[in-house]
Amino acid sequence: MIAHMEKEDARKAPESLHERRKQVVRLNRKGFGPMRIAERTGLSWGGVNSALKLFKEGGAAALMPSRRGRKAGSCRTLTGEQEKRVQQLICEKRPKQLKMDFALWTRGAVKQLILQEFDQNLSIRCVGDYLHRWGFTPQKPIKRAYEQQPKAVKKWRDEDTSVPVLVEQLQLVA
Cα 25 to the chain's mean position, in Å? Predict the structure, then answer.
């Protein structure tokens, strides 16, 4: 009798799982039963039976593992038409034109736009995922205002504590 082998999780590497499944079929053709195949391959009894069932129903092509996880695009909150509308608004309008309290398009501004247009309150992260998927990237200004005087700005920031610090907020547009 073969010594007990620790069961190996073949889900991590699809090519490894494919090889294991082919090995299961070869051993089965040689007359080995599922328990002996499981002992020899390190797969679980269920994994062996699953491979044999796949081969019986679909042949060698069925042994190739399929892609795991959710299908791309599933579980989205916005419909395709809504996504197109938001992209169109972002490209054609500025937040101020839509009577929003933002100077530039930020994730917060897009979140508010979606809430305003479709009455759907998405998380900031979800909005960021949509923007990334649509190909929008965080942008920085190409150049600074040439009149800006860094020493005067620093002095103003250090001395006047009654005015909220907006300089950092303007730089964190993304």
Answer: 36
| Structure tokens belonging to residue 108 | 């917060």
Query: Cα–Cα distance between 96 and 83 in angstroms, integer?
Result: 20
Structure token digits, residue 47: 């994994």
Cβ atoms of residues 108 and 116 within 8 Å? no
Q: Is 43 exposed, middle or buried (0-12, 13-18, 19+ CB in 10 A)?
A: buried
CA separation (Å) from 31 to 13, 24, 27, 34, 36? 27, 11, 7, 10, 10
- b vs e for 90-113, b when ≥16 Cβ sit within 10 Å of the residue's Cβ? beeeebeeeebebeebbbebbbbb
Report percent pLDDT > 70 for the chain.
Answer: 81
Q: What is the tens place of the pLDDT at every residue in 44-84?
A: 889 899 999 999 999 988 888 888 777 777 778 999 999 99
16 CB-near residues (< 8 Å, 6+ apart): 10
pLDDT tens across 151-171, in order? 887 887 777 655 554 544 444
Q: Give every CB contact of residue 11 below 8 A, 6+ residues apart in sequence.
A: 17, 68
For the chain, the farthest-separated pair of C-alpha atoms sits apart, in whole angstroms, at 87
